Amino acid sequence: MHTSNFTAWPEFELRLRPIPLSLYIVAHSILAFLIVIGNSVVIAVHFKDRANLTPNTMFLGSLAVIDLLTGLFAIPLAIFARVVISSVTCLAGSRILFFSPALVLCAVSVGHLIDLAVDRYIAVSHPLKYAFLMTRRGSKYILMATWIVTVSFGLLPAVGAWVYPDQWVCGTFMNIVLWYMVMGSP
Predict the structure, then answer these.
(1) Using an 8 Å Cβ cutoff, are 182 and 102 in contact?
(2) Residues facing 13 on adjacent strands
(3) For residue 12, what is the enclosing H or E element?
């Protein structure tokens, strides 16, 4: 008789009891659902009316794409990594993969909010020069630069996770720091 040590699924346990776990998952699922629906509407309106594409609407459309990706990928992965304790979710080398989308998309979202603030500042402080200062082409370059800089910045925490990829991080101070960075408070 042949026995194997291979198991298809790693052993795991849940961090929360059934009722708090249910509340946690329901609350974050509702949030993700509203994020996806709301930003899908913004994207649909944005792409439907391409003739009136202004620098401001370009920034808003790009921000809606970022927020849609947050609702589709970052929130579910962060929920999974926060709730499940296993060899997949608690080793530093693999845990950062669950939180990297949230960190990257958060950085890109903040970059887009800065772009929007600068755009609105120019529109208010120099209304007669706005059309010359903020063109479609210039806005595309600003968006491209924002994406490159903020994705690079958002990936920085992943570099530190590869120093000790086999280190167990669940329940450690680093886990608490990641939790506050990604989700707010426990």
Answers:
(1) yes
(2) 85
(3) strand 12-14
